[in-house]
Amino acid sequence: MNKQELIKHLAANAEVTNKQAEAVLNALSAAVLNAVWAGKQLVITDLGKFSVVERAAKVGRNPKTGESIQIAAKRAPKFTPAKALKDAAAG
Asked: Measuring CA to CA, which residue among 51, 43, 52 is closest to residue 84?
């Protein structure tokens, strides 16, 4: 399912227009991005948790040359699915 299909699905199930559904979806995307950017977590029951993890600096290896390289520390987004989502995926 892509974004346009999701908008149509939301509009049909919530009985709103496509423009209204798109506005809600864009607002949700912005809320997730803002929470992750601020280093906070956003929990949506039955869907999951969006958060940020701090990855420490480490030494890696160039697979082509075998040379050791330094990999910088960074922040990375993380999504942890809720039990309901895991159960739905399992069938």
From this structure: 43
Sign (positive or negative) of CA dihedral 79, 83, 85, 86: positive
Which residue in this structure is represented by tokens 């906070």? 40
DSSP helix/strand/coil, 35: helix
Tokens of 42: 């956003």
54 bridge partner residues? 75
Cα 2–chain centre separation = 15
Which is it for strands 68-71 and 58-61: parallel, antiparallel or unpaired?
A: antiparallel
Question: pLDDT for 2-18, tens place per residue?
Answer: 999 999 999 999 999 99
